[in-house]
Automatic annotation (TrEMBL):
GO cellular component terms listed in the entry, alphabetical order: membrane
Glycosyltransferase 2-like domain location: 6-140
Segments passing through the bilayer: 260-278, 290-307, 328-348, 368-388
Topological relation to the membrane, as annotated: Multi-pass membrane protein
Name of the protein in its database record: GtrA-like protein domain-containing protein
Keywords for the protein's UniProt record, in alphabetical order: Glycosyltransferase, Membrane, Transferase, Transmembrane, Transmembrane helix
Family: Belongs to the glycosyltransferase 2 family.
Stretches assigned to the GtrA/DPMS transmembrane domain: 262-390
Pfam families, A to Z: Glycos_transf_2, GtrA_DPMS_TM
Length: 395
């Protein structure tokens, strides 16, 4: 009798890709003659492109195609997909692939053969000989950076591919994984490195196999690179601290701080913009410092407003419209400006003018006065914007 491999394909608006991906997956059967493939499409409930129609047709044509609807998040799609397979298909091997045509599907054959060799976890990898990453430069930097960071901070050193879903494992390994600890319900793709980490803790015997990763066929990427990077960093630090014996729920706490981190980043960019225009207005337009500061701060305020509105607080539903928010943001920022001026005034009255020598260079006290204003002004801006400008309205 043939063995069964279940292949979970998580989908979120993949109408244009799913039929082709399913077809390619079944094509691999000829290279693994002792296996029969079943496919589980785990589709996000937010999919709105009519993928159900295509899936229905696939199911009608092939009874080894299954379709389930799952709550949002890649991790949910993968974990629920495997649980469905275990409950309904009695698989000998659990596998998973992206559904958008990015993964060259012959990796499936290598993954399954690796499990046949006695490994409990096979990892498709762009970093081993024969593997390729054909993404944009920015995405390649992310992939490489995440790999290095995870290897150094979290370990193990010998798993090089941490941010791809192409994997296969045994049901025994899957059942040993601590789902209570695994952040599988997150909206980002943190499941990818986190699953490896938990698998290693569960005693996985692993091996990487070559994977070729191309650009997707149709549709768009759901990867939120900032959020994902943030999660990878805090998850790895959390894992390292736990392995050193510090039982601080760092990862969980950091979820709450995410908006604050984004807001602070915008603040930092705004400060740079402020400084840049300040210098340009003084040096090229011969404005007085005070006038220059007035204009540069207003430019920074608008810059920060745009970034916060379309990034930091992007998903906040508010009752105010864009112009009202901009107005409130300006009034709020004026508060920050007054706080800043008062702090500088106070420090100046207390410590006066002077210099300190740092690395042989004289640095004026007033530089420190300026920097001292940044944290309190940021705190003010965040609190007031959090409570007023982007106030969350309960429906
Ligand atoms: N069920 C489900 N699938 C998802 C979700 N996010 C991404 N996917 C699927 O996971 C795979 C990889 O996602 P993709 O957006 O292509 O990310 P990228 O390859 O890193 O750009 C694709 O098949 C997506 O449809 C999600 O929230 N839920
Ligand atoms: Mg993709």
């Amino acid at each position: 009798m043939k063995k069964i491999v279940s292949v979970v394909l998580p989908t979120y608006n993949e109408k244009g890709n799913i039929a082709k991906t399913v077809e390619k997956v079944f094509e691999q059967e000829k290279n693994i003659p002792n296996f029969e493939i079943s496919v589980v499409i785990a589709d996000d409930i937010r999919s709105s492109d009519g993928i159900e129609q295509v899936a229905k047709e696939l199911i009608r044509k092939n009874r080894r195609v299954h379709f389930i609807k799952v709550e949002p998040g890649l991790g949910v799609g993968l974990i629920k997909g495997h649980q469905y397979a275990l409950d309904n298909l009695h698989p000998d091997v659990l596998a998973q692939l992206d559904a958008d045509g990015q993964v060259v599907p012959d990796v499936l054959v290598r993954l399954i053969k690796t499990i046949e060799e006695g490994y409990s976890l096979a990892i498709g990898s762009r970093f081993v000989s024969g593997g390729k990453n054909q993404l944009s430069f920015v995405r390649r930097i992310f992939t490489y950076g995440a790999s290095i960071f995870c290897r150094l901070v979290m370990g193990p050193w010998d798993i090089r591919e941490v941010t791809n879903s192409a994997r296969a494992f045994t049901p025994a390994l899957f059942n040993k994984i601590n789902l209570g600890r695994l952040p599988w319900q997150e909206r980002t793709f943190i499941i990818q490195p986190a699953f490896l980490h938990e698998a290693v803790l569960a005693g996985a015997k692993y091996k990487e196999v070559p994977l070729i990763f191309k650009n997707r066929l149709e549709g768009y990427s759901k990867n939120k690179v900032f959020n994902y990077t943030y999660d990878v960093i805090v998850y790895c630090l959390d894992a390292r601290m736990h392995s050193l014996g510090f039982n601080i729920p760092f990862y969980r706490l950091s979820r709450r701080a995410k908006t604050l981190v984004k807001f602070s980043l915008v603040g930092a960019i705004g400060t740079l913009v402020d400084f840049l225009f300040y210098k340009v207005f003084i040096n090229f337009l011969n404005l007085t410092p005070a006038t220059a500061k007035g204009f540069s701060t207003e430019i920074a305020i608008i810059n920060n407003f745009i970034l916060n509105n379309y990034w930091t607080f992007r998903y906040r539903k508010t009752k105010t419209n864009l112009w009202q928010k901009l107005g409130i943001f300006n009034v709020v920022s004026l508060g920050g400006l007054i706080i800043g001026v008062l702090i500088v005034k106070y420090l100046h009255l207390t410590y006066g003018d002077g210099f300190v020598i740092i690395f042989g260079r004289p640095i004026a006290y007033n530089n420190f006065y300026f920097f001292a204003t940044i944290p309190p002004v940021m705190l003010w801006n965040f609190t007031v914007n959090h409570l007023i400008t982007w106030r969350r309205e309960e429906n």
